[in-house]
Amino acid sequence: MSVRVVVADDQEIVRTGLTMILDAQPGIEVVGAAGDGLRAVELAERLRPDVCLLDIRMPVLDGIEATRRLAGPTAADPLAVVVITTFDLDEYVYAALRAGARGFLLKDAGPALLSQAVHAAAEGDALIAPSVTARLLTAFATGGPAAPPAQPVEPLTDREEQVLVTVASGRTNSEIADELFITLSTVKTHVASLMAKLGARNRVEIAMWAYETNRVRRR
């Protein structure tokens, strides 16, 4: 079955372009499009798509609040949200992460990366463009609090340390499995364990912890 997607962007030409690109990809079907965040939430709640692709800057209800309503901790039946942005304001993207967004792309991402992000989100995985991860972590490092990083509730295993570094590099679960020669289900188990041990709510928070503790060098 095709991955069903709702697209939301306040610029009609961008919204139309994203819809055309996604509909042209195998295994993806755009089932709804909205020009503002409130309409996106209404569509998503009614259509229950597999993935919501949301711009951050939208009228009526911005992408951050729309993400929170669809994917946040108070959502009764959370949906997968991928944020796509020009990345003009780093703090907006960080707020979207906190709101529960799963994937993150720049608007100049090509069709292949866009398709990968949608499929990954639908499968419960996440795709974060490496350039987005680097930019976000840089913004976090320069503007975030100077508090020492939290210690894991239990020590990380050697394999978890390896998975941690690959997650911080923006790899998907499938890429991690190939790189470390382990199964996809094993990767998912390690990522879930990392989130539990680090108190992280998403993969970018895992990446932030890796950078804070110097597991990975800042670009």
Give the secondary structure arrangement, pairings included.
Elements lengths: L2 E6 L3 H12 L4 E7 L2 H11 L3 E5 L7 H9 L8 E6 L4 H10 L3 E4 L4 H12 L7 H14 L14 H11 L4 H8 L3 H15 L4 H10 L7
Parallel strand pairs: 1-2, 1-3, 3-4, 4-5
Helix pairs in contact: 2-3, 3-4, 4-6, 6-10, 7-9, 7-10, 8-9, 9-10
In short:
Helices cover 51% and strands 13% of the residues.
Note down, in words, how this protein is organized.
With 219 residues, the protein is of the alpha/beta class. The chain has two domains: 3-127, Response regulator (Rossmann fold), CATH 3.40.50.2300; 152-212, Winged helix-like DNA-binding domain superfamily/Winged helix DNA-binding domain (Arc Repressor Mutant, subunit A), CATH 1.10.10. It has ten helices and five strands, in the order βαβαβαβαβαααααα. It has a five-stranded parallel β-sheet with strand order 2-1-3-4-5, sandwiched between helices. Strand 3 (51-55), helix 3 and strand 4 form a beta-alpha-beta unit. Helix 3 packs parallel to helix 4 (90-99) and helix 6 packs across helix 10 (203-212). The protein is globular and about 45 Å long. The mean pLDDT is 86. Residues 4-122 form the Response regulatory domain. This is LuxR family two component transcriptional regulator. The modification 4-aspartylphosphate is found at residue 55. GO terms for molecular function: DNA binding.
